[in-house]
Structure formats: structure tokens, C-alpha cells
Design brief:
This protein has 207 residues and is mainly alpha-helical. The protein has two domains: 108 residues, no CATH class; 77 residues, Orthogonal Bundle (Arc Repressor Mutant, subunit A). Helix content is 57%, strand content 8%. The strands form two sheets. A three-stranded antiparallel beta sheet has the order 3-5-4. Strands 1-2 form a two-stranded antiparallel ribbon. A hairpin with a 2-residue loop joins β4 and β5. α2 crosses α5 and α7 packs antiparallel against α8. The protein is elongated. 22% of the residues are buried.
Length: 207
């Protein structure tokens, strides 16, 4: 399998191209993912805890999935993907599916990382960097200073944001793991920091 399809980089052209098919076919799951992310308000990121729906989402059949509205660009890209797949030495449909799943997973991770990148506050990013350098994590009491300093520097932005709201964002984005009174960076959080560097998203942020 070509490295271009499996290397988890947002600039991996082949992974993104093949991932478009997976994004289209698995559109309902992607929509539910986006619904769980934080939203942007007029004063910055509005932190919301994810709420799981109690109503089961109906599974789409192949026919229903293929009837979802698409643009001419999508149809044109499908031809490109089919042509690209035909150049790979894939021995079965099962291998093709695994390639598409890998590409979709790569694209989905990039989407989640980009969502967090455009909503995270500077203080939360500093927290992640500090946690990444602390093998045993940090105590909640040690973490509160990141929030306190940010609230003092941006009083308007934090007027209606509590420490729990601030901390809840990085937890809901799966960037950190809380263990009683201690917080540790998650593998997803470490990957997120690398993504910021690779995607050149290390610009200064407010908050």
C-alpha cells in the first residue's frame, strides 16, 4: 500500500482524495461528529458539553447513500478516485474497503484537529504543552493557574466562562484525560500538537 494513503498528514493528497468517497458514504456519522463539536460565538468559542441523542439514528442503505445530493465536482472526483484505485495492486474489494477506511480515518482526524485548532484558547494550548512535558500529568490545583491568568488577561472573554467550562472544552475534544484530581494529555492531544506544527497553525491565539 502506498505511503501516501497511510501517512497521517493533512497535506497527504492521496489520503484526502480517497477520503472524499468515505466522507460521502459515511456522511450521517460525520454530521453527528460535527454536531458534537464546540460552536463559535461572537466573543469566541462557546464551550458546550456533548449531548448524546437518545434517539437511534437509522442506518442508510447503499441505495439511500447513493441518492444523497451531490455536486458535479463530487461526481468528477469519484472518477479520479476510481482511476487512482485501479493503479494500486489491491487483490480484493476487502482490501479496497480497508484502504478507504484508512483514508477516511486520516481525513476525520484532520477534521477534528482543525476544529479544535480554530476554537482552542491560548491558555488551553499552553496547558496542553505543559501536560505534554509532564509524564505524570498535573494536579487540578496546578492547572487552575492557566485559567486564572487567562481570565485576568481577558476579563470580557471570561466573564461568563467558569473553570469547569474552560476545562470541559479540552476534555470534550478528547485532548486530555482526567484521573481524579490529575490531568494527563491524551494521545489524541499529543497528535494535535504535532498537527498544529505540520499544518502551520501555531499562530498566537487569544484567551
Amino acid at each position: 500500500m502506498p505511503d501516501a494513503l497511510i501517512w497521517p498528514s493533512v497535506v497527504c493528497v492521496a489520503a484526502i482524495v480517497v477520503g472524499i468517497v468515505a466522507l460521502f458514504v459515511l456522511r450521517p456519522a460525520l454530521v453527528r461528529l460535527i454536531d458534537r463539536t464546540s460552536k463559535l460565538g461572537k466573543e469566541g468559542a462557546v464551550f458546550e458539553r456533548p449531548q448524546e441523542s437518545t434517539k437511534a439514528q437509522p442506518a442508510l442503505s447503499f441505495e439511500e447513500a447513493m441518492r444523497l445530493p451531490v455536486s458535479a465536482s463530487v461526481l468528477d472526483r469519484e472518477k479520479t478516485i476510481l482511476a487512482q484505485l485501479s493503479t494500486f495492486a489491491l487483490r480484493s474489494d476487502e482490501e479496497k474497503i480497508k484502504v478507504l477506511i484508512r483514508a477516511f480515518a486520516t481525513t476525520r482526524i484532520a477534521l477534528e484537529h482543525n476544529t479544535a485548532a480554530y476554537t482552542i484558547f491560548a491558555s488551553q494550548l499552553r496547558l496542553l504543552i505543559a501536560l505534554n512535558a509532564a509524564p505524570s500529568g498535573l494536579l487540578i490545583e496546578e492547572i487552575e493557574r492557566f485559567y486564572t491568568e487567562a481570565r485576568a488577561a481577558f476579563p470580557d472573554l471570561y466573564a461568563n466562562r467558569s473553570f469547569d467550562d474552560w476545562l470541559g472544552f479540552v476534555i470534550s475534544q478528547n485532548l486530555v484525560v482526567r484521573r481524579d484530581r490529575r490531568l494527563e494529555i491524551a494521545q489524541f492531544g499529543s497528535d494535535f500538537l504535532k498537527h498544529l506544527v505540520d499544518a502551520k497553525l501555531t499562530y498566537d491565539r487569544r484567551g
